[in-house]
Amino acid sequence: MCGEYIQNVTDRTNRLWQFTIGVTYDIPREKVETLCADLKELLSADAQISSDAMTVTLNEFSASSMDILVRCYVTAVDYTASMLREARRNAGALAGRIRFRQMNAEELRFRPASFDVLVTRNVTWNLHDPEKAYAQWMRVLKPGGVLLNFDANYGNDDCSDTSGLPKNHAHYTVGDELLQECEEIKKQLPISSYARPAWDLNVLGKAGFSKFGIDLEISSRIYIEKDEFYNPTPLFMLRTVK
Known about the structure:
Elements: E1 16-23, H1 29-44, E2 55-61, E3 66-73, E4 75-78, H2 81-91, E5 99-102, E6 115-121, H3 130-140, E7 141-152, H4 171-174, H5 176-188, H6 198-207, E8 210-215, H7 218-222, E9 235-241
């Protein structure tokens, strides 16, 4: 269960994420105590969490569960301020629980071993040096940390071709000139000529990642209908472990 409280609804860099975990009453006390201790240890090991914001405690006895209160930070990264403003808008009521950071995905300013999980979507194909980015993501992950990378082999497709898209698709609001400009920029990126995700797996392996998992059918489960957000280029998901 997750509470719907909004914390720190300001422009401060520290964004507090507060939620509750419901544990059923049949769980033995020692297991509840172990869970709380493990959560505290996990948060304490994160360099991005300050000690005064780290809380794990049995907070309430509700009708069907014992509720453990957890407070931690979530960090969101983008290269431009305008995209971060859009991200805040898209986050809606959850925006107050997310810490948004503007920086270069190829030169992250986080300490080594800062994160348990990294999630990227439609990022890698935009990068000038994706191999450097993968090395950076490896650096900031903790041992055993997981990278989930959702991307596509966009180099094979022409993004200015809207013939197969529904009439209400978002690309029609961009305009032909901007779509063509995007296509020209994409052709200049080395990653557009790579065979993906085979290239990604090779680079991730050299970076030190292990336990690779790949999902080539994820688009069929996400884009069930051809609506305004439909993506004609098949997505893939890479799951790798440090």
